């Protein structure tokens, strides 16, 4: 029986089964107020993010290097805040027209 439990644990690990839930997406609309290239973060003054937070100015990590490099100070953007457990980041960023 013990070997069966060990085999099941190895199989589960090998299949990449994770207890981390998928990221929950939330729309963000705001203005880029500061960029930190070293930490790849953007300070964004944003409206209410439904289901996540009220309007405020907050620093968000930007995981995608190309998207971060395309950001400009003062630019109005639309994007997605991805929330996963206690982690969050912004992606799918586009200039708002």
Q: What is the name of the CATH superfamily?
A: Copper binding periplasmic protein CusF
- Report the top-level CATH class: Mainly Beta
Mean pLDDT across the residues is: 88
What is the count of DSSP helices, taking H or I runs of 4+ residues?
2
Strand content: 35-45%
The separation of the N and C termini measures 63 Å
Task: Walk me through what this model shows.
By secondary structure, the chain is α+β, with helices and mostly antiparallel strands. It has a single domain (23-95), classed as Copper binding periplasmic protein CusF (OB fold (Dihydrolipoamide Acetyltransferase, E2P)), CATH 2.40.50. It has two helices and five strands. It has helices at residues 2-14, 65-70; strands at 24-36, 41-46, 56-61, 76-84, 87-95. Strands 3-2-1-4-5 form a five-stranded antiparallel beta sheet, with no helix packed on it. The longest helix has 13 residues, at 2-14. It is globular and about 40 Å long.
